[in-house]
Write a structure and sequence with these properties.
It is a single chain. By secondary structure, the protein is of the alpha/beta class. The N and C termini lie far apart (76 Å). A hairpin with a 2-residue loop joins strand 5 and strand 6. It folds into two domains: 262 residues, Aldehyde Dehydrogenase, Chain A, domain 1; 179 residues, Aldehyde Dehydrogenase, Chain A, domain 2. Strands 14-15-16-13-12-17-18 form a seven-stranded mixed sheet, sandwiched between helices. It contains 14 helices and 21 strands. It is globular, with a radius of gyration of 25 Å.
Length: 483
């Protein structure tokens, strides 16, 4: 096995060598030469050549291959999940769930295509009006490191079902995950050129978006999303589906059980070591005894969380950040922010430098940057009224997820009507999302093309047709015709 997969062949890339390591131990898990600019061009050319035959196949043939892909994922779950844990540092319970989501994506995508981008046939006096959908062509997929299997899989499976071909560049932090996914697609019988893999860093991604692609499907940071918008400003023919980050609010109001609320806060803010785009970054509570009780209960629960390596003797709640550099950056940024520290974002005794303890800071009355710190870091703001809580929750340029913890259904209705976010949860973690629903946000969190169930929408375009079975004399319909 080598670093690139182009036109059905694995081979060494012609770019620089890269290494991926287990952030918990520093052990090397992947080392290969990455793709050069020429490799990227060849991958796009291979996808372009493969597109007509793949798109022209009966849809049932594409479905059969992707159902076989699902079977391969199920067969390889144990080994694939362990590889994901080694490369990301995530606990095995998380990576096994990720593999389950990847396998489940196939049937969900088939259903979504039928419901959202299938065929509609309406009778007309002259024959019929038909709505069909067709694939765009070559899709570039750029994957993130936090869910290096599930999130790119959520673009690739719907694209392949629609008849698109794919050039996939995984995150440079998680190349092994991308390789294993493409190996599974190859084992399922995806034809040569339909899926191509190019490994590498930012320069590889730049080479890919400079090619004549038909779409860019991206999950990642808001800064990268803004760059892609600018890059493709003069290329309206390229469809962009951008699922970006969030500075997500979680409001707790009128809750009698502070410990129950704290459990939801912890699951919202610190799961996956805070490395989910839907994690709560801002906790908004009443400036009274009930709000202080929620803050205190959250701090107590934070101290009970097990932090450790994925293969430790005790199953961890959270592992390390993706790299030592990420941990150093997160701690440095947290140290510069104002507010009263409740818990520091600090080192974990006895573990490596990529591990951090979850942090929490009270920023009431403090102006803070409207930025996403991709780490287990929670800012608390105390306010006097629910109206102020709503105002504070919406005080962000992002709009991915938001949550309300409250036993008052009237407050929930107000929150649901007034909050600006694409994923809005009530008495559930902000990170909760169903594959049978859309996933995406507004503002700096996306470009109004949500993924998950709605990925079908950006993987195919509509064709509207008037059709008649025979040529009929329509001279009488021509107005003003001279005799």
């Amino acid at each position: 096995m080598s670093g690139v997969f182009i036109d059905g062949q694995w081979r060494a890339g012609r770019g620089p060598e890269r290494v991926s390591t287990d952030p918990a131990s520093g052990e090397v898990v992947w080392r290969e030469a990455t793709a050069s600019e020429a490799d990227v061009a060849e991958a796009v050319a291979a996808a372009r050549r493969a597109f007509p035959a793949w798109a022209d196949q009966p849809r049932e043939a594409r479905i059969a291959i992707l159902r076989r892909y699902k079977e391969v994922l199920v067969e390889r779950t144990a080994a694939f999940a362990e590889a994901l844990s080694r490369e990301t540092g995530k606990a095995l319970w998380e990576t096994k769930a990720e593999l389950g989501s990847m396998a489940g994506k196939v049937d969900l995508s088939i259903k979504a295509y039928d419901e959202r981008t299938g065929v509609t046939d309406n009778p007309m006096p002259f024959g019929r009006a038909v709505l069909r959908h067709r694939a765009h062509g070559v899709m570039a997929v750029l994957g993130p490191f936090n869910f290096p299997g599930h999130l790119p899989n959520g673009h690739i499976v719907p694209a392949l079902l629609a008849g698109d071909t794919v050039v996939f560049k995984p995150s440079e932090e998680t190349p092994l995950a991308g390789q294993l996914m493409v190996e599974a697609l190859e084992a399922a019988g995806v034809p040569a050129g339909v899926v191509n893999l190019v490994q590498g860093g930012r320069e590889t991604g730049q080479a890919l978006i400079n090619q004549e692609i038909d779409g860019l499907l991206f999950t990642g940071s808001a800064a990268a999303g803004a760059f892609f918008r600018r890059h493709f400003a003069d290329r309206p023919d390229v469809i962009l589906a951008l699922e970006l980050g969030g500075n997500n609010p979680l409001v707790v109001w009128d809750v009698g059980d502070a410990e129950a609320a704290a459990a939801l806060v912890v699951q919202s803010a610190f799961i996956t070591t805070g490395q989910r785009c839907s994690c709560a970054r801002r906790l908004i509570v009443p400036d009274d005894a009930s709000g202080r009780a929620v803050i205190e209960a959250t701090a107590v629960l934070m101290d009970r969380l097990t932090i450790g390596p994925w293969n430790g003797e005790v199953e961890p709640f959270m592992g390390p950040l993706i790299s030592v550099r990420a941990a150093q950056t997160a701690r440095a940024v947290a140290d510069t922010l104002g507010g009263e520290r409740i818990r520091a974002l600090g080192p974990v005794e006895g573990l490596g430098e990529a591990f951090v303890t979850p942090g929490m800071v009270d920023v009431t009355g403090v102006d803070t940057p409207d930025e996403e710190l991709f780490a287990p870091w929670l800012q608390v703001r105390r306010v006097a009224s629910f109206d102020e809580a709503l105002t504070a929750a919406n005080a962000t340029r992002y709009g991915l997820s938001a949550g309300l913890i409250s036993e008052d259904s009237t407050l929930w209705e107000r929150f649901l009507n007034l909050i600006r976010a694409g994923v809005v949860n009530w008495n559930r973690p902000t990170t909760g999302a169903a594959g049978s629903m859309p996933f995406g946000g507004l503002g700096a969190s996306g470009n109004h093309r949500p993924s998950a169930y709605y990925a079908a929408d950006y993987c195919a375009y509509p064709i509207a047709s008037f059709e008649a079975p025979a040529v009929v004399d329509t001279l009488k319909d021509i107005k003003g015709l001279r005799g």
